[in-house]
Amino acid sequence: MFRVRFLLLLPLLLATAAGCRGVSVDSTYDDKVDFSQLRTYDWLSLPPTSPTAAKDETVVGALGTLLEKRGLKHSKDQPDLLVAVHRTIKGQLNTKGSGYEFRDGRLRTYALQEGSLVIDLVAAGTKETVWRSSATGAFRADQLPEERRAFLAGLLDEMFDGFPPRR
Fold first, then answer.
1. Would you list the DSSP string of 20-87?
2. CATH of residue 50
């Protein structure tokens, strides 16, 4: 009887789990800036000792790809924008909780970490932030590299939804 009820509830559980990413995203920008005039970017280097400096090439590579798709070109020669990437991860593989998924006919648990990713686009001339997007929440700690890349690509797409803003 329990199995029948579970099978009847399974589609609802899967639909709910698919919609719950556990990450909240917020983006803001300076509405006085004409983003259509900004064409190039370069990376704003943070001191390597900065506790939030993102050193992961996967993040930088995925963000570079996204910015190129959004019409910006990487240029070290007088860029319009400087891109700063900050990241925190709480627990460093010490889990804050666990999640659940249905795989191979079984309900399985997986470890979660808590963290944040903040991306600032800074006007190179004024050194003022013109776009900031942040994502905070829980994510799977045990993702395979290809799962992590797919998760990151989806997260960055969400973080840059509406970029560049139109006047």
1. --SEEEEEEE-TTS-GGG--EEEE-PPPTT-TTB---HHHHHHHHHHHHHTT-EE-SSS-SEEEEEEE
2. 3.30.160.670
